[in-house]
Write a structure and sequence with these properties.
Elements lengths: L3 E5 L3 H13 L3 E5 L2 H10 L4 E5 L7 H10 L8 E5 L4 H10 L3 E4 L4 H41 L6 H15 L4 H13 L9 H4 L7 H7 L2 H10 L8 H6 L20 H15 L11 H11 L6 H19 L7
Parallel strand pairs: 1-2, 1-3, 3-4, 4-5
Length: about 325
């Protein structure tokens, strides 16, 4: 649906001209002749942006802005003033009240369109950031719930996230893919919520029946997330991080490029952390031994190109540590 703009302008010719300009840009426009009508329209449907004259009958632009900002849905709605008033007091009052821009009449149509586009894009960026932050908090809380059930994997998902993000950046993944990866890495073991604690914390290797239960966690996790719109992009990380390049993994036995890149990438980060962390049935191995296993697994267990990039990154991190820094975790 196109962005909805509420226009408040008492001069009919100017109002019609602005509406024509904005509709030509693809915006949906609701136009009103004064501030009182505009406020009523705002209360019926919150617009994406408001353009208003300052001097209007009944309710002027300043009073309209005050009412909008006082409304529960109006605090973040961009507000642009159009006015013939050039005196500093008028523009100062507009800023104090929370106006986002102030265009002087006569104005150029391009200036108005550019101002609107800029304010709408800023609002979209803010909404994306706020939504992502809220989702990430929820996901982190869920990941912590998973880890409280398995005393041997405390901090695992955060470390996997760190290794995976480093590798994705090295491979040139874009910002949108990195954002999804943040969620996917934290949630990759979400299906373990339904694995009995006795299996998760067993101090010996699992028997066949127990291993069959454990191996179901990718599918269980994928099913849990598939019904949540904003987490659906994380499903490939959850479902495919135990697949192998040679087709000997699970749950689907995919091989090579049949495995989505999300699964191939996370397999490296997950396996490395599993090897270098204490587990119920064994102690952690040293970095060098883990690197040797990754090298041996490149082309069998792991995507060979991703494996090479991962080795390069981890060796660089420990090379820096040997010069006096701390190894990246």
């Amino acid at each position: 649906m196109p962005p909805h703009i509420l226009l408040a302008e008492d001069h009919p010719d100017i109002r019609d001209l602005i509406q024509e300009i904005l509709e030509a840009q693809g915006y949906r426009v609701t136009s009103m002749a004064d501030g009182q009508e505009a406020l009523a329209a705002f209360e019926r449907e919150t617009p994406d942006l408001i353009v208003a004259d300052v001097l209007m009958p009944h309710t002027d632009g300043f009073a309209l802005l005050k009412a909008v900002r006082a409304h529960p849905t109006g605090a973040a709605v961009p507000f642009i003033f159009l006015s013939a008033r050039h005196e500093p007091a008028a523009t100062a009052e507009a800023r104090v009240l929370g106006a986002d821009d102030y265009l002087f009449k006569p104005f150029d149509a391009d200036d108005l369109v550019q101002a609107i586009q800029a304010k709408l894009e800023r609002r979209r960026a803010t909404q994306r950031f706020d939504t992502r932050a809220a989702h990430l908090q929820t996901v982190s809380m869920l990941a912590n719930v998973i880890e409280t059930r398995d005393r041997y994997t405390r901090g695992h998902v955060e470390r996997v996230q760190h290794y995976a993000l480093d590798l994705a950046r090295e491979l040139g993944w874009d910002s949108e893919a990195l954002s999804v990866l943040e969620f996917g890495a934290l949630l990759h073991d979400v299906g373990k919520i339904l694995v009995p604690r006795a299996i998760l914390n067993k101090p010996k290797r699992l028997v066949a029946a127990e291993w069959a239960v454990m191996r179901r966690h990718p599918e269980i996790g994928a099913q849990m997330l598939s019904g949540v719109d904003h987490l659906r992009g994380a499903v490939p990380y959850v479902l495919y991080h135990h697949e192998r390049w040679d087709g000997q993994g699970y749950p689907a036995g995919l091989s090579k490029n049949e495995i989505p890149p999300e699964g191939r990438l996370l397999a490296l980060a997950d396996t490395y952390d599993a090897m270098t962390s204490d587990r119920a049935y064994r102690s952690a191995v040293q970095h060098e031994l883990a690197m040797n296993e990754i090298r041996k697994g490149a082309g069998t267990q792991f995507d060979p190109e991703m494996g090479t990039a991962f080795i390069r990154l981890r060796e660089a991190a420990f090379g820096s540590a040997s010069l006096g820094g701390a190894p990246a975790q």
